[in-house]
Design a protein that fits this description.
four-stranded mixed beta sheet, Ubiquitin-like (UB roll), 2 domains, Tumour Suppressor Smad4, 3 helices, mainly beta
């Protein structure tokens, strides 16, 4: 996936950047890469940085959760963004889990897992948001999108 964005730097200067990323990249991955490119210092993808989309017509702007997958985030070419710390910008209310997944059968029966706004991947694979130690579950079994509505998507994984 390739995007052309306008990056607002900490000093207020704006410069054009091109982002090339895999479809599996998260907003946090992209924000960390942008920050590392700007500072010339390493920035881990799990460092808590995210992107804020700046819009003239929206004084609150849009803070993208770092866990959002890039293709599902709504980020597109031509947008103006800045890199921010998620916890600082989001506030405690936005960090709370608005839903939970309760496992009702299988080896993980009785376990409860928080589900956060945006996509939540469920499966056996270590990188999933909800990891199930169940041989009947696929590596990336399903994606549960939490928003105004809840959407469950079978990822057709093996």
């Amino acid at each position: 996936m390739r995007l052309k964005l306008e990056l607002v730097q900490p000093d207020g200067d704006v410069r054009a950047i091109a982002v090339t990323a895999e479809a599996t990249a998260t907003i946090g991955d992209v924000a960390a890469a942008i920050r590392a490119g700007e500072t010339q210092l390493p920035c881990a993808p799990d460092s808590g940085v995210t992107l804020q989309v700046l819009r003239d017509e929206d004084p609150g702007n849009t803070l993208l959760p770092p866990r959002f997958l890039l293709p599902e985030s709504g980020l597109h070419s031509g947008q103006r963004v800045r890199v921010m710390q998620w916890a600082t910008a989001a506030g405690a209310a936005d960090l709370a889990a608005p839903a939970e997944l309760r496992v009702i059968s299988g080896p993980a029966k009785g376990s409860v897992h928080p589900l956060y706004r945006g996509p939540n991947v469920v499966g056996r694979q270590a990188g999933c948001d909800v990891v199930l130690a169940d041989p009947m579950a696929s590596r990336r079994h399903a994606r549960i999108n939490i928003g105004e509505q809840v959407e469950v998507i079978d990822t057709n994984s093996a």
